[in-house]
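User: Sequence in, structure out. Go.
Assistant: Echoing your sequence, followed by the structure tokens.
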Amino acid sequence: MKAGTLSRRLFLLNSLWALVAVALIAFVLTEAYQRNAERRFSDLLTANLYILMGTVEPGKDGILSGQPDLRDARYQRFGSGWYWTVNSVQKPENRITSASLAGGFINVPSGISLDENYLRLFSYSDDKGQSISAVEGQTYLGSGLDLYSFKVTGNKAELAEEIATFRQTVIALLGLFGLGFVAASYLIVRIGLKPISGATALLADIREGRAERLEGVFPQEIQPLIDETNALIESNRSVVERARTQVGNLAHSLKTPLAVLKNEAGAAPPALARIMREQTSMMQQQVQNYLDRARIAARHGTVTSRTEVAPVLERIVRVIGKLNPHVEMKIDLPRGRNAVFAGEQQDFEEIMGNLLENAARFAQRRIRVSVSLPSQDGPARLQVLVEDDGPGMTAEECELAMKRGTRIDESSPGSGLGLAIVRDIASEYQGSISLGKSGLGGLGATLVLPAR
């Protein structure tokens, strides 16, 4: 998924939520289980303590005896951490212990007092360094006034191991769930946004001139956007057609009055006739100039303009080659890439026709047309270099030649408008034309236009 795309954003947000949710659930479950396990552990010790209290009695001589059965084999295994002991508070040597304690002692840390039920909870480390949790209760036995202490312990390492096992299991299961959720999110995003990708591809076809509208069936959430886009394309096409019609109407409406003025100049005095002819010619040129620019701007406004470069060049070269059989003309096209002009074919034909006519007029034997698609940031560009082996121009002459109506060589026919027309058309497409020294020794014209 490309950076900055909607699919990437949705996928990352879903994945982030999955990770946060899984981590939160794992924390809540393990914490709840740990609290429950600790409570069960404490309840087990307390229950064993009461069982122990109910199964121990002193003999007639007051000496404790017997082996109470707490029904837990851990109290029989030496050093297990599960111990019990009963002793007289007044006579500590009067005591009995579990087999697991083997006559040892359960050490009560100082500073821990009994509660109102004569119970107290405490922790300590046994002789093997094990962390032990214990509960002690004191009560009177028999008919005497002797107070006896009952202590029962449990190994906290087993509790910690149980909690750790549960935590690992939860993390593993939720981790698998999280990975599955991320994978499912990826598929959901890709499948769910597939109609948008399809619409994007169709828009690219329109931009490249391969289609004129968005066709297909789309979800209800996207269909209004598709309909509005198609309506915008139709509106754009209507605006272009109206502009073309108005340009044509204006051209026809001005052509006749100017022709009449030009004809009437013949009956006027010579000085006035000369001025009238000059001014009407200038008016015709200016009108044609602005009509051409309006026509180009109207056509350039449509997003479906597309012209294959190679067929147009080959056709123009073939025509000009027949008119100039003494000139060898060669076209160099980019390898592996299709050069496409982002504009109307008529405009590209007019540009290349003017450039190749100028080149053929001054070339001695050779003309070369080189087409390239230079790599650069921003919009794609098409570069066409037209070179000849003629006399060429100086820098001052190149600058002068770009002005409308200027002719460097008065000996050859022409109006001097060709390069200016090329410049105007290229400018309307946000392109450029420049003149310089040719690799063949003559003039080189470099044209830059937008590309598809």
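User: And one key feature?
Assistant: Confidence is low (pLDDT under 50) at residues 405-416.
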